[in-house]
Amino acid sequence: MTREEYVKFASDVRRMRSLVVVVFALVALTPSVVEMFRQDLSPVMVLLRLVLALVVLGVLVWFISWLVLHFARVQAAVAEQARSRFDDEGGLNSGG
Fold first, then answer.
1. Going by fewer Cβ within 10 Å, which terminus of the chain is more open, N or C?
2. Nearest of 78, 60, 89, 94 to residue 6 by alpha carbon
3. Backbone dihedral angles phi then psi of residue 82, each to the nearest 5 degrees
4. pLDDT digits (tens, 9 = 90+) for 57-70
């Protein structure tokens, strides 16, 4: 992974993680909404569950995205070091 690829990947991950949190929270909240429509659960409880789902899933998604970005950054740094070492040694045209 080159530095430019990492920057583009990191930008995409950062842009999408809020959307992922909201989608996962809505999926997790679906059973509660069904209970509310059957009048087994109050709307206040559904809102409380929504807040809890957003917090828990938000922390989880942000941690996982941080972990993925960390390993992508390490991979980009290692590739950059290998490329610079290859260039310092003269590449394929070294007269060794």
1. C
2. 78
3. -65, -40
4. 999 999 999 999 99
